[in-house]
Write a structure and sequence with these properties.
By secondary structure, this protein is α/β, with parallel strands linked by helices. It is 47% helix and 16% strand. The strands form 2 sheets. Strands 1, 4, 6, 7, 9 and 10 form a 6-stranded mixed β-sheet that branches. A hairpin with a 4-residue loop joins strand 2 and strand 3. The longest helix is centred in the middle third of the chain and has 33 residues.
């Protein structure tokens, strides 16, 4: 995971207009097809078709004309994430559907998926987005309860892990590592919506920004598995992890959640699996990737379950496809654990290349229809 905050959370606000010279972003005059906002990203520019647009359900079409993989963020003025789409490869396009209320925002393109990005300020105007759906309101309320429960359950799970580290018990810490991450992995887009928490807790060494101190789970993971040791620094880092997770727990109830942010977040969870779990990059020392993989899928499936009544009404065929694909990926994951109700998975370095390919194909088969969920609930 990169040290930049990631999330698919969508909320309401708007953006003050500034010139392309001040932001490093150029503008285009027309809004593109079907009223969508058009964003053309390159290695040095982030061209936005409109810097002022009606609030409400907004479709953003992104095209990467640069040579580097990029990502697009829609940000509140305080850098909280409203919506985002990662891993937009050179020469490819992506679409983000979001609910944006009137107010100020920034678009940020991030060539190479590093740094603060090339930014422009925009404004959502009018009263769009105020229309409410009782079904979707219920889904948001239920999901907020789920997120809060995951954060609550994470506190003792993380403390079991960090207590073992502070006690200098390498084997006990290893046993507690994967379960300490489950709540975070299930709700990662919400967790990452607070941009200052993810870089402290879940960054890998290759995702560090210049000058950033390496803290969090993966720093301790390296000490436990690669170095097989716990020193005073690791004990201090364990206490730091407790503090950071407690801060996440404290703030998670204030996260901006909308139906489309839930749907986009579910897609981001699958992207996280494809990008880091299937490749073995996430838990590269412990090889507990499949436990994170399962938690990501569970989080995405929870979102779908809550949005299913509206999805069935608006796009019955999509709902049918998603049901089948979730069943398929869960069945595939069950092959790698002895107990279908537990989380003791095969260590990932024991998973053969052809098996990794099968897992990758299963994730991609689910991710494609899941990318349509936001548009379906926004109809």
């Amino acid at each position: 995971m990169s040290s930049s905050a990631r999330s698919a959370l969508l909320a309401a606000a708007g953006l003050a207009i500034v010139t392309a010279t001040a932001t490093g972003c150029a503008q285009k005059d027309d809004g593109g097809s079907a009223g969508a906002l058009q964003v053309t990203a390159s290695d040095r520019a982030c061209e936005v078709s409109k810097t002022e647009f009606p609030a409400g359900k907004v479709t953003i079409q992104v095209e990467n004309k640069g040579s580097k993989v990029t990502e697009l963020y829609v940000l509140f003025p305080d850098d909280r994430i409203v919506a985002e789409r990662e891993n937009i490869g050179p020469g490819t396009k992506a679409t983000v559907t979001a609910e944006i209320k009137a107010g100020d925002y920034e678009f940020a393109c991030k060539p190479g998926m590093k740094g603060d990005g090339i930014r422009t300020k925009v404004k959502a105007t009018g009263s769009g987005g105020d229309k409410r759906s009782p079904e979707l309101d219920a889904a948001v309320a239920a999901y907020r309860g789920y997120v809060l429960a995951q954060a609550e359950e994470s506190l003792p799970a993380v403390k079991t892990f960090t207590d073992a580290v502070r006690a200098g018990d390498v084997e006990a810490a290893k046993r507690a590592f994967a379960s300490s991450r489950r709540g975070w992995e299930r709700t990662e887009p919400v967790a990452e919506s607070f941009g200052d928490i993810d870089p402290k807790t879940d960054v890998r060494e290759d995702g560090l920004e210049p000058g950033q101190n390496w803290t969090g789970w993966h720093r301790l993971e390296k000490s436990l598995w690669a170095d097989n040791r716990i020193g005073d620094e690791e004990k201090a880092l364990a206490s730091r992890l407790d503090t950071d997770i407690a801060e996440w727990h404290k703030r998670v109830g204030t996260a901006e959640i909308t139906p489309t942010s839930m749907a986009n977040g579910a897609k981001e969870l699958l992207d996280e699996v494809s990008r880091n779990k299937v490749t073995g990059e996430e838990d590269r020392y412990s090889h507990t990737d499949l436990a994170d993989f399962k938690a990501n899928v569970e989080g995405a499936e929870k979102v779908y379950e809550l949005l299913k009544p509206v999805t069935v009404k608006n796009d019955a065929e999509l709902a049918k496809t998603l049901e089948a694909r979730f069943t398929a990926i869960n069945t595939l994951l069950d092959k790698y654990r002895a107990d279908e109700t537990g989380y003791d998975f095969t260590v990932y370095d024991k998973v053969a290349e052809e098996q990794r390919k099968e897992l990758s194909d299963g994730v991609n088969a689910l991710a494609e229809p899941l990318s349509k969920l936001a548009a379906a609930v926004a109809k």
